[in-house]
Design goal:
With 229 residues, the chain is of the alpha/beta class. The strands form three sheets. Strands 2-1-3-4-5 form a five-stranded parallel sheet, with helices on both faces. The chain has a four-stranded antiparallel sheet with strand order 6-7-8-9, covered by helices on one side. Strands 10-12-11 form a three-stranded antiparallel sheet. Bound molecules: calcium ion (CA).
């Protein structure tokens, strides 16, 4: 089921949108201010966002711009002012669609469905052409920087992602902490190599069923780490 995020400070409008979308089988959350809206949008939990322009705190312009830099989900922007819609279009913030209030909720639902279908096709195309590493229950999409653990998408920081990908691309090879530190942090080994240990621990917490008995990244005592294949 697709998850929709509504960022809207007018409760009656937000509730109306939510009701219609839920009737069409969507899972819907509402955030009524810019700060929480932005946070929710960046969580990676949602498939599409309906974003009001005028919001307390962070406004819709800012949210759209920030989200677009990082996320690929469709964004439908709504505003009470036709002028504002023209302005957003002009700014090229990367919204996928614009609607002027008041609009009919069924028109909104139709547009939501159309955008989700379009994104699915796009993502399907991209995934088919992406560089993907699959080892047992672990799937790493290098092109999209996304990771799935047993079918569930899991969030990794950039360094965790780089480290996991490097190890998975070089299975059965033991790397010392110094080597990994140089490889991933791109520095001569004068930094704190304990960073490597900390990152390995975090990765294990995300990928391993039992961290005391790792199935992916093994510790080779006194030497370093090895990705088990
Ligand atoms: Ca508003």
């Amino acid at each position: 089921m697709s998850k929709i995020l509504i960022v809207e400070d007018e409760a009656s409008i937000a509730e109306l949108e939510k009701d219609y979308l839920e009737l069409s089988g969507f899972d819907v959350d509402i955030q009524n201010n810019g700060k929480n809206g932005l946070e929710a949008a960046m969580s990676g939990e949602y498939d599409l966002m309906i974003l009001d322009l005028m919001l307390p705190g962070v406004d819709g312009f800012e949210i759209c711009k920030t989200v677009r830099e990082e996320k690929n989900m469709p964004i439908i922007m709504v505003s009470a002012k036709k002028d504002d819609i023209d302005k957003i279009r002009g700014l090229g913030l990367g919204a996928d669609d614009y609607m002027t209030k008041p609009f009919s909720p069924s028109e909104l639902v139709a547009r939501v469905k159309a955008h989700l279908a379009r994104y699915d096709r796009l993502v399907g195309y991209r995934e088919a052409h992406n560089e993907v590493i699959e080892i047992r229950g672990l799937k790493i999409d290098k092109t999209a920087h996304r990771v799935w653990v047993n079918g569930e998408e899991t969030q990794f920081t950039t360094k965790e992602f780089d480290l996991l990908t490097f190890l998975a691309e070089n299975p059965n090879h033991v790397f010392s902490k110094e080597e990994l530190f140089r490889e991933i942090w791109n520095m001569e080994s004068i930094g704190d190599i304990a960073t490597v240990t900390v990152h390995i621990k975090k990765i294990r917490e995300k990928v391993e069923f039992d961290t005391s008995n790792p199935q992916y990244i093994e510790t080779i005592w006194g030497v370093g780490y090895r990705f088990k294949i």
